[in-house]
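Hey, I'm writing a tutorial for new members on how sequence and structure tokens pair up, and I'd like a real worked example in the thread rather than a made-up one. If someone can provide the structure for the chain below, I'll link this post from the tutorial.
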Amino acid sequence: MNFSRKNPIQTKAWQKLTAHFEQIKNVHLQEMFANKIAREQELSVEFGDFFVDFSKNRWTSETIQLFTELANELHLRESISLYFKENNLNFTENRAVLHTALRSDEKEIVLNGNNIIPEIKSVNEKIETFTKAIISGSQKGHTGKAFTDVVNIGIGGSSLGPKVVCNALQHYKNHLNIHYVSNIDGDELEETLKKIIPETTLFIIVSKSFTTAETLQNANSIKNWFLKYAPETAVQKHFIAVSANVEKVVDFGVDASNIFPMWNWVGGRFSLWSAVGISVALSIGYENFKALLQGARKIDAHFKTKDYKENIPVLMAFTSIWYSNFFLTSQHAVIPYSYYLEDFVPYLKQGFMESNGKSVDRNGKAIDYKTGTVLFGGVGSNAQHAFMQLFHQGTNLISTEFIGFCNSLHGNSDHQDVLVANMFAQAKALAFGTYGKKTDNPYKEFKGNSPSTTILIKKLTPENLGSLLAIYEHKIFIEGLLLNINSFDQFGVELGKELSRNYIESLHESASKKSLLMQFYKNNQ
């Protein structure tokens, strides 16, 4: 069994969707609600602690049915099944895509003739033992003092995933302070070093290949800083690594027993469920880390088994393709109404734009339809006072996903009521505006008819966060499948890396060989 490589716009279902779009493209959401009293009930999905309202999208049950036909024509169900077992979904790099195995409760998932579940379990046990020892203080630094701080050194998925989880779940954190160093910007590094004490800090270097330029430069700079205060032998007590390149890690000075493996079948931006998430387990404790995995596992089961009309990730992917390829939108916003999810949108930006920003299909042919949407957003209600004016009265059609929680973590229900009321109000204003109401002031007219999906969750817990993250992972996957692209390679980031190496070398050339821009840079250092 393999995934489809068919051009979606050449399917019968796509042609039906095109005709259907012509029929409803100018119908206002106000009319859609007026014509269907039970619209919200019909176009919403409830699952566990989640209630997802799709009714404020510019579509109907017929739209969903036609997308279901498209999914069937492109063998989506078979591809979803393949996604959870041995596969070659990342065929351009000849890699399997099996990050879902990291949170699976299956006893056997076979890859290349080997059951990978025992190895995953073994690594998780190692993470549990190690993190409990650090948190309890039984495992100490080289001077015999317990650790107070943890610095995660990595970039991309080796930083963004764990960082979004740690910050989102800071309500559950213990006494350890977690810091993330990802940028090659030396100023960021120095600001982090100002906050920590060498003898009570644990450093985690996260790099699958242990060759990532930014990560290695930061790691070496931190090591050199550390050795100003400690002997070389202390490195083995203060540095651990998450990597697939054991030899290079040992050469760096990390003890082999302090290396946690990464696997070729886990893409970086989907890796927080693995040992890459060890900073999460250190921050909130291993039991909460397990709950995070449990939440993702619940959505995996939902995703695998539910009909498309009740399948949250699938329906979310349908909306994305509907707007990008039929309404021809190029932008999508995600607005979480929670202070704790401040890093959520940057995390999603990497996931979606790195995964589905492709212009060549799975047959190696140039694409003549829309793939990849510019994703942006911010925390509500701050977003209302920043960029949402454009949504309400601008000329661009922008689809939005609102994320909110029924309960405040600190029990402040008065504030939570106002916060959630703002979220509901924004969704309603975008949908209906002042449509049908007379106004003598054109500056105060709101066109409405701007689509949105609202995700309402009972409470921000480790388990519910795991579910939310998994929903978006599966949304990425479905979009890629239906648009016939490989969501799991990332060749687009390589050219800039190559050119940066050339520029680093040219900075040391004679002045006559430098560009004017580089001369200005060197002359003003």
